[in-house]
Specification:
seven-stranded mixed sheet, 623 residues, four-stranded antiparallel sheet, 33% helix
């Protein structure tokens, strides 16, 4: 009686009770593997795999079971067949409960049915297969072919010559039949050379004939005989660049990209105006930029288990990136979107253009970047954290410069034209978080991270040592500092209403460098120093000259001037604007009104003209 459920047979086991148990368990494991096999098809398995599976269930060592399982299978040789192919030993059985040699049935094949029909058609009936009746020729409308593809057409001659074939003229059916019957020699048509349009092409990889080598655009040779891992490790960046160039040069734009992902444009869905309105309202309602995963789950009720989740997620990012009401502010691994109507992140006391000009020296003169003197970019990337001291300017405006050290720590932009990225800065010591905006540098402006003004003013002082660390989420970072016992200080603070600086009593509980704390004990003459306008602060020499006049010691003599130590000048300048020590000394050394000595800087103010004297007197009257 047949077995309708295709259940495996239950054989009779031999050997000791332990061997019978192991043989039965091995047989059941192999039957699980062959759940959808025909009953006479062998199923093969190695002793090592069987031992590993049984050992995982019993919680024992697999190597100790291999010899025991081999003995059990040998004791049941009527059920298991031992097969040794020279490289490894396997045991085979079938669902019948014993091993049978597989046999291939060649009695009824497709080749025989195709070439040896049982009832071939007679000669009289060949008209159903071959006919001399020609169908009417239809009019073929001309189709424009892009010059891009004409350069790659297989019908092109040497140096891009395009061979035109003379069109077939319309004729009557009788003339066509007569031409078909007569043995007419074909007429050779001379090719017509058409000068191709000028096309600027990307370098094309060259494949040598009968070879596994591909010559990349840069001249490097890629051997396909190597493994994929080795190829990507050596030529991964070159292949990605060549692929991106080829996709960008495609005039049909059949493949679109977002970041490092590529999809066929015809396969990704579109977003309607209603979809865009719902997404924008959702982001504005949340009050902060939202990741694409939250938009998919909260607006579209989609989850990663959906079959088209990856495609729809790409479509969402690609479509939003083409809309002017949305801005991508995410990074690799965390794709955040901002919408028109969200509040600005960061300080409003300075414009973004002014901050960009202050930090432009980091891009224009990278030799003045001192951020990597104490550590290296490799150490920062490996440790995924960075420690630094706050200057007064950074503390006052809640800003951190995007210098070489921060570039090694913080994520790079994902899109070519990306300007900003929103990061979530968490404080484990105070169970709070802050949204910070990372502004990437442009051609003539530097970059910075701002949005930490409240945290700095509430918990830190200028000169505090802070540590910025990465987390498992690429958009979330932690900011910590070393806590100490409380200390009181008369700290310099900016009075925005009066436009001047004043000392205010302040208590802080953080570890700080005393040389960077702008206190009354350190530089009492900073009191009542005015806050320079952005135009005055833009030029470093102008800022340094003003600080020397306010804080420096007068030098009488033929050429009157003001003198101040380098440490005090560095502190005073950073009250007004950001500057590194090397940038400050390097710029002042080029100015004729400054004399940079070993431990001090001397400033010789230029003689005042009548206009400047009148302006100075006018300012004093206003006071």
């Amino acid at each position: 009686m047949s077995n309708p459920t295709n259940a495996p047979a239950q054989p009779t086991w031999s050997g000791s009770s332990e061997q019978q148990t192991l043989a039965e368990r091995a047989f059941n494991v192999m039957m699980l593997q062959s759940a959808f096999f025909p009953e006479n098809v062998p199923v093969r398995q190695t002793v090592a795999n069987l031992a590993a599976f049984i050992a995982s269930q019993d919680g024992v060592d697999a190597s100790a079971l291999e010899s025991t399982i081999s003995a059990a299978l040998e004791a049941n040789s009527q059920i298991f067949r031992r097969i040794d192919d020279g490289e490894r030993v396997v045991y085979a059985t079938t669902r019948l409960g014993y091993y049978t040699e597989p046999q291939i049935d060649t009695r009824h094949t497709f080749a025989k049915r195709l070439h040896e029909p049982e009832n071939p058609l007679p000669i009289d009936d060949l008209s159903v297969v071959i006919t001399r009746t020609r169908p009417a020729l239809t009019t073929i409308e001309p189709v424009f072919i892009s010059d891009y593809w004409q350069q790659r057409s297989p019908t092109t001659g040497e140096e891009g010559e395009i061979i035109n074939v003379a069109p077939i003229s319309s004729s009557s059916d009788a003339e066509l039949d007569e031409a078909f019957e007569d043995d007419v020699e074909p007429v050779a048509v001379a090719p017509v050379a058409v000068a191709p349009a000028a096309v600027v092409e990307a370098p094309t990889p060259v494949v040598a004939a009968n070879s596994t080598t591909l010559v990349l655009p840069g001249g490097a040779a890629l051997d396909f005989a190597q493994s994929v891992e080795n190829i990507l490790a050596v030529h991964g960046s070159t292949i990605q660049a060549a692929l991106s160039t080829a996709i960008d040069n495609d005039p049909l734009r059949r493949i679109v990209a977002f970041g490092d992902e590529y999809f066929a444009e015809e396969n990704i869905p579109t977003l309607s105006k209603g979809d865009l309105r719902r997404i924008r309202e959702y982001i504005v309602e949340q009050g902060e930029p939202m990741p694409d995963t939250s938009i998919l789950s909260d607006v579209y009720y989609r989850n990663p288990r959906d079959n088209d989740y990856v495609t729809f997620r790409f479509a969402l990012n690609y479509r939003l990136n083409r809309e002017k009401d949305f801005e991508f502010v995410g990074v690799q691994g965390a794709r955040l979107w901002s919408a028109k109507g969200l509040p600005a992140v960061g300080t409003k006391r300075l414009k973004t253009s002014e901050l960009g000009q202050f930090y432009s020296f980091l891009e224009e003169t990278p030799q003045f970047d001192d951020s990597l003197k104490q550590t290296s970019p490799d150490d920062i990337k490996q440790n995924r954290q960075l420690s630094r001291f706050l200057s007064f300017f950074e503390w006052e405006y809640g800003v951190l410069p995007y210098d070489a050290a921060m570039k090694a720590l913080l994520p790079q932009p994902l899109l070519p034209e990306q300007r900003t990225a929103i990061l979530r800065i968490e404080s484990p010591q105070h169970y709070s978080f802050y949204l910070a905006e990372l502004r990437y540098p442009t051609a003539n402006r530097g970059g910075w991270l701002h949005g930490l003004e409240d945290f700095f003013k509430e918990h830190l002082v200028p000169g505090a040592l802070i540590t910025l660390s990465a987390t498992d989420d690429p958009s979330v970072w932690t900011l910590q500092y070393e806590e100490t016992s409380g200390a009181d200080v008369k700290l310099l603070q900016q009075d925005d209403k009066k436009g001047r600086y004043a000392f205010v009593k302040h208590t802080f509980y953080c570890d700080a460098d005393n040389d960077l704390i702008a206190s009354q004990d350190r530089l009492p003459r900073l009191k009542n120093m005015k806050v320079l306008t952005p135009g005055e602060r833009r030029r470093l020499a102008t800022t340094a000259g003003y600080v020397l006049e306010q804080v420096g010691q007068p030098r009488p003599g033929d050429r009157a001037g003001f003198e101040l130590s380098i440490d005090d000048l560095f502190l005073g300048v950073n009250v007004q604007r950001p500057a590194t020590r090397s940038y400050l000394l390097g710029e002042l050394a080029e100015e004729q009104d400054f004399l940079v000595e070993e431990a001090a800087v001397i400033y010789f103010p230029p003689p005042e003209d009548e206009t400047s004297v009148e302006n100075k007197n006018f300012d004093q009257d206003d006071e």
